[in-house]
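Weekly modeling sync, notes
Attendees: S.R. (lead), two postdocs, one rotation student

Agenda item 3: backlog of single-chain predictions. S.R. asked that every request posted to the team notebook include the full sequence so nobody has to chase files. The rotation student volunteered to paste the first one in as an example of the format we agreed on. Action items at the bottom.

Example entry:
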Amino acid sequence: MRQPWRVAVVGGGIAGLAAAVRLRDRAPGGTEITVYEQSGALGGKLRTGEVAGEPVEFGAESFLMRDPTGAESAAVVLARRLGLAERIVHPTVGQAALVVDGGLRPIPGGTLVGVPGDLDRVATVARPAADADTDGGRPLVGPDADVSVGALVRARFGDEVVDRLVDPMLGGVYAGRADDLSLVTTMPALARAARVEHTLVGAVRAAQAAAPRAPGTPVFGTLAGGLSTLVEAAVTASGATVRSDAAVRELTPTGTGWRLTVGPTRDPEFVDVDAVVLAVPARPAARLLAGPAPAVAAGVGELDYASVALVTLALPQPRLPELSGFLVPSTEGLLIKAATFFTTKWGHLRRADGLALVRASVGRYREEAQLQRPDADLAATVHRELSAVLCTPLPAPVDGHVQRWGGALPQYAPGHADRVAAARTALRAAHPTLVLAGAGYDGVGIPVCVRSGETAADEIITALGGSAR
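Predicted structure, as returned to the notebook:
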């Protein structure tokens, strides 16, 4: 192996950038790291823009402060590593609501992504099925099985709990349906408990007990100044060469590593490297894997994605409830699936002049036709639906922005984790210096993507004969 190492990170989202930082920290000195990003912007779904002169997230809004063990999440650890810990801020209003029968009702506490551990606490929004969650003398889920969240919860708690509570909670994160989404991938703590517990109430309580949270400790955080500061700091700390507007079109194994074909077909550039972190969504990853690992490509390429649009409105002195926002069950028939009252939820964004920033999420899996509307139509519909839900005519916006994310949110069907594990096992056996990272494999959320990138970097270091300390 020649020195210094040359490592390509394909994909400039937060998973790829976290991999680059980890490589800089743990790979031998002098390692050459190059990040290739097809678009002109780094950060993937982390993008801070501006509306009415204020920084606003046009993508991911926040990150979890703790991981499932109760330790600091990978996002918090990375922020500390990048010198951004003092910028972490937390919501000043945490209570959110559900739209039920056209009106707002507070989201009940004590649930796990909407799945209740106490059925009495959810009675204000849904009527659980009577006596369905019985002890059948065996665990809810087999030791190697995976089911959809909706199938499990419907069988135990009935349709209303799924349709009015679980589905909108999951939909707010994945833009998907509980009946389609993998329990193991989207709710791993509940899946682990369900392999032991005989009732769903028991599984929820066991999962909650396994990850206790001290009262008053914040669940979420973001960065003052916007999450793009995390992107910028990661680029700087990685010391990587960044190639924007640089599409990697082909990966070819060589005797000592990989040859990347970069750029347009008519004028390609060929780059030789020792290893590759492939941190792009599943479908472009499958295209790149088709040559060196066709069987892996076929499995990876099965993952489907949902598209969404985020509509931000700047409203002069509206009458808003003291809520962080609300979620909308699909049964309500609204285009909006979620809304966030930014300047209520985040105290550091509040303005003395009363201008409010409200962001609505539009688009559900298999309803992409709704997103074909022009920006002005989406914004007008959001404004009208917000007024209806809040039972008050909102003032006309003085500014706004529509951010479209095509194919942004992975739809993890049951069995996803096994398919990813099989793909990675096959790659390790045939091509140990080619590693997958990102939301398409390990789950959504900034901490999960950061951890995925860091783990990929550690695998590369080990494969090249180093020590991933």
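Discussion: group reviewed the output briefly. DSSP finds 15 helices and 22 strands in the chain.
Action items: rotation student to repeat for the remaining queue; S.R. to check formatting next week.
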